[in-house]
Amino acid sequence: MKDFAGKLAVITGGGTGMGRELARQLVAEGCDVAICDVIDENMQETLKICQQEGPQGVRITAHKCDVSKEDQVLRFRDEVLDLHGRDHINLLFNNAGIGAGVSFVDGSREDWERTFNICWYGVYYNARAFMPYLVAATEAHMINTSSVNGFWASLGPGSTHSAYSAAKFAVKGFTEALVSDLRVNAPHVKVSVVMPGHIGTSIAINSGKISGHAVEDFTTAELVGVRKRITARMGIDLTEVTDDQIKAMIKAQGEAFRDNAPTTAGEAAAMMLQGVRDERWRVLLGDDAQVLDRLVRENPEEAYEESFMVKLREQANWGLS
């Protein structure tokens, strides 16, 4: 698929970040777009931007949907087909996700499953819902967003990232399985797994809102847990630090993740679209993702040791602590 004009693209998680940038770039190329998101305010902002920037005649629709709930995904699908008057879609970007460092050992089961269900079942439910309509197109492509945490299940020693990593490993494995499945059963439908490194998005900020743990609403118990994790990971004495200072620290970290990334959301979206044009089933987003992929392949047994982090900081310029 070299040309997106006149096609219909469905993008989950279209409210911010890579989802918003995908919508902007596709609309600019004359592609009709349907986005969904769970944060309506963000989604409406994307809709407004695309309507202002896009050429006349291109249609973009916005749909509120929690991708972890299949009934909402099915409603989303029906709305898309109805509002766009189509019996097929050409592009499905399973992009929605949240990041949360939930421990399997001492974290809340509810929080763990909330992260896993959005990041994995959000992909699965949308793939199931839209697959017949991809097959119905003369050319179609599904793009599933995994992560570097889909082949490296960590943020470094002292971190707990099991729910997110497990889900992203599932997305990667599912997509790889679809490569052969589609070649046998629907060869005109292509599939790609994209694995972003550090991309400048608001995922760290939005994740708290979506999971019900917005920084400003942290309970005393949550702040105790935050202090414990920061102390374990960074070795910082927080005895003299107030709760408000802890909240400000977390907020600043989320903003720094968005603003100081080596790859912008717009650059990442452009890489994804080029991957579609090139029919590549595996797309690493960012130089840091390339470095991390190489380091894990060179010495997988070392991947979860401090020595590995030293190499990663040096070679990928990751300022991880």
From TrEMBL:
Domain of life: Bacteria
GO molecular function: oxidoreductase activity, acting on the CH-OH group of donors, NAD or NADP as acceptor
Name of one Pfam family that matches: adh_short
Keyword vocabulary terms for this entry: Oxidoreductase
Ketoreductase domain span: 7-199
InterPro entries: KR_dom, NAD(P)-bd_dom_sf, SDR_fam
Family named by the database record: Belongs to the short-chain dehydrogenases/reductases (SDR) family.
Protein name: SDR family NAD(P)-dependent oxidoreductase
Species: SAR86 cluster bacterium
